[in-house]
Design goal:
Number of helices: 3
Distance between the termini: 129 Å
Shape: rod-shaped
Radius of gyration: 44 Å
Structural class: alpha/beta
Number of domains: 2
């Protein structure tokens, strides 16, 4: 009676194969991790390069805008200096709303001498009248004219003040050397 005392399996070679496969899997996964890390580093470097280029481009654009604005401001400053210097030989025109016989009049005065006046009605062409007076002035061609719109805010009608103000704003685009000032003698704004 030969009894089987048990089966003895040799596991050493099987363990060797399993360990070899385990090392192989670890090597492959480690290699993939290294490649993923390298790709991530390359992507980060590329993103940093793009960001630096965008920052440089934004800085260049900002510098161009700043230079352009400085040039514009220098031009305006030069124009204001020329205006101040040129005004020494310039004109002074007073445009005022007054009352004559309880009628509202728009009067134009230069060097204390009345040039013209027109009655203000709802049908008045204020812009036309102001243009007509401005065209009479000798300094209108390239000279400097300071035109002061003078009114008493306590007595004149708001609509008349606004009508004259709008006409002056429109005319300021057509006449380069004319500068308008608004003076409310009542002390209110």
């Amino acid at each position: 009676m030969n009894k089987n005392k048990g089966l003895i399996i040799e596991l050493t070679s099987l363990l060797d194969v399993i360990l070899i496969m385990l090392f192989w899997v670890m090597m492959v996964s480690s290699d993939k991790a290294d490649k993923a890390e390298q790709k991530a580093e390359q992507d980060i470097a590329a993103a940093n390069t793009r960001a630096e280029q965008q920052i440089e481009e934004a800085n260049r654009n900002a510098e161009e805008v700043i230079a352009q604005k400085e040039k514009e401001l220098d031009g305006k400053l030069t124009q204001y200096r020329e205006t101040i210097e040129g005004f020494a030989d310039g004109e002074m025109l007073s445009i005022s709303i007054t009352y004559v016989d309880s009628r509202e009049m728009l009067s134009f005065t230069r060097f204390g001498e009345q040039l013209s006046s027109v009655m203000l009605t709802s049908y008045s062409n204020i812009e036309y009248e102001i243009r007509r007076v401005l065209d009479m002035l000798p300094a209108k061609d390239g000279g400097i004219i300071l035109a002061a719109f003078i009114y008493d805010g306590n007595t004149v009608l708001y609509r008349d003040v606004e009508a004259v103000r709008k006409a002056l704003e429109t005319l300021s685009k057509d006449y380069e050397g004319i500068y308008f000032a608004y003076i409310n003698t009542s002390g209110r704004s």
